[in-house]
Amino acid sequence: MSDRTTSPTIRVRILISGRVQGVGFRFSTREEATRRGVAGWVKNRPDGRVEAVFEGTEAQVEGMIRWCYQGPRSAQPTGVDVHCETPEGLQGFEIHHH
Questions:
Q1: CATH code, domain with 80
Q2: Does a structural domain hold residue 42?
Q3: What is the pTM of this model?
Q4: pLDDT, tens only, 39-97
Q5: Per the domain annotation, does 25 fall within a domain?
Q6: Which among 11, 26, 30, 49 is annotated as catalytic?
Q7: Number of domains the chain is built from
Q8: What's the gap between Cα 44 and its chain centre?
Q9: Which of 8, 17, 85, 94 is the S-S candidate for 41 at Cβ 3.0 to 4.6 Å?
């Protein structure tokens, strides 16, 4: 393991617009977050966007944000809005259903 575990935890809430529902975006986000060691959750919103919260080191969270601009193969994100929040100490990564 590297020294990254001692880096401060940050948290962001993001909203992804575009063709992001019905394309496996939530499941792919969970896989990517788990691979990167990022905690949080992801869900579909009624307005057609996907909402996610990521907690981890700055490098881990920035990697997830970059990934969201592309998403899974069949997704076509057109916008990613990022909002910083106070970390809550989340563990694991979940898919939330309304």
A1: 3.30.70.100
A2: yes
A3: 0.92
A4: 999 999 999 999 999 999 999 999 999 999 999 999 999 999 999 999 999 999 999 98
A5: yes
A6: 26
A7: 1
A8: 12
A9: 94
